[in-house]
Amino acid sequence: MKRLADIILPLAVAALLLGAWEWAVTHWQVPAYVLPSPSAIAKAFCDNFASLMEALASTLTVTLEAFAAACVLGLATAIAFSQSRLLERTLYPYAVILQVTPVVAIAPLILIWVGFEHINLALVIIATIVAFFPILAGATLGLKSADFNLIDLTRLYGASRAQTLWRIRLPTALPYLLSGMKTAGGLSLIGAVVAEFVAGSGTATGLAWRIVESGNRLEIATLFAALALLALTGVLIFAALSLLEWWLLRHWHESALSAS
Amino acid sequence: MIALEGIAKRFPNGLQALDDLSFSVARGEFVSLLGPSGCGKSTALRLAAGLLTPDAGAVRYADGKPQIGFVFQDHTLMPWADALTNARLPLDLKHVPRADADAGAAAALARVGLAGFEHAFPRELSGGMKMRVSIARALAAQPQLLLLDEPFAALDEITRNALGDDLLKLWREDGLTMLFVTHSVSESSYLSQRVLVMTPRPGRIAADIALPAARDTRLSPATIEAQRVISGALNSAIAV
User: What is the average per-residue pLDDT within B130-155?
Assistant: First the structure.
């Protein structure tokens, strides 16, 4: 019953808002180039369905590749840090610098270095930089959070570093890593969109470019359709990662237990 | 079986935890290490296990380092793993083939009365049952020497007594050597054959009390008499 309400209530609010929007736009005769009605947006969505889906596929590919790269690089770096305090102390500041420097400012440089002929690679690199840090931070904290007594126990039985990492440190880090991944999933999409904006005309083919293009042509309904598609994509990425988190932690972690 | 000889150890904060600590435990003995909180009992136990190295002195084992089982004050279970996987940890770390390791862990769980709970996760178990899994894990590697660091301190008295009786049963049946750290006079008086009373700051042995055999219940006269003797030794150790 409560589950049903969780779904029905937000949907009811959405229907109400869309209805009010539709009514207001018609009633006050708002020009379509300022605010199109939901029905006009739906129509633009259907009219441009094929090209929007193509753009979505392009943006989604960059997003997922960047997310995968950020997961692999973030976790690998965190594991390297967990094995050597010296390495961590030496390199962590640079990871922070990479994180706090606005990616929009680095993006043109990356585009030039990678070259416009490898535009997708450049986009993936930019989005990876955005998504990398939460995974590194989460995994680093998680790998350090292992129970000291459990670590002592592995020493007592003569375990190798790899065994301790695999059996104790990595499982301990999993909830932290997943939390970082949930943040990084959304950031990959944001990174992909920002990268497309910076890459600009003629080269990028994703949803962000469709938004810029539609804005320039005053096709605001198409712009809204692309925007809605982006938002939906973000929500789906978050939902998928939340599901993964719940599934992996369902037997033991408090966060997953309270959710089930 | 094991002897600590003239051990000195400083805490990382510079405080002298142990100074000239010496004692030995014979094969098959059940020895309690009794003292107030912060007297270095746990440090002594970690030294005995080889988890710490002494600043001076040496830890000697009679015939090479025995297989050691260690039980912590907290159950220290892996929350992500079921009881069987937890009990199997020592065998997994020693690369025992999975089928043998499963059999060994299941047998250890059965020995502590947890047959049928192999696939329960720690969160599904009571505090006493978690401690039983922890003991099963220590038993799984078939240790000759079992080191216990106040294993029942976090449990209620009823559970503590039941676990104490089980521990005695394990000791009698397996011929284990037990070194049991506690701050409970009544626990040490009932469980052990010999009680080593420790003084705090720096920790060393103040009294070595051999207890008579006839302590078959917690309330038998010999047990009560043992408590009186141990309490007396503890009081004079703290008073110094």
Answer: 92
Distance of alpha carbon A49 from alpha carbon B115, whole angstroms: 60
B165: left (phi over 0), alpha (psi -120 to 50) or beta: alpha
Higher pLDDT, A101 or B200: A101
**Nearest-CA distance from A231 to chain B in Å?**
34
CA atoms of A16 and B88, how far apart (whole Å): 57
- pTM for the whole structure: 0.86
**Rounded distance between C-alpha atoms, residue A109 and residue A39, angstroms:** 41
Nearest to A157 among B78, B80, B141 (CB): B141
Looking at residue A260, its pLDDT comes to 47
The answer to whether residue A123 scores a pLDDT higher than 50 is: yes
Nearest CA in chain B to A150: B76
Could you tell me the CATH superfamily of domain A33-259? MetI-like (1.10.3720.10)
Chain A positions touching B68 (Cβ under 8 A) are 156
In chain B the domains, ranked by start, together with CATH numbers, are: 26-54+144-240 (3.40.50.300), 78-142 (no CATH)
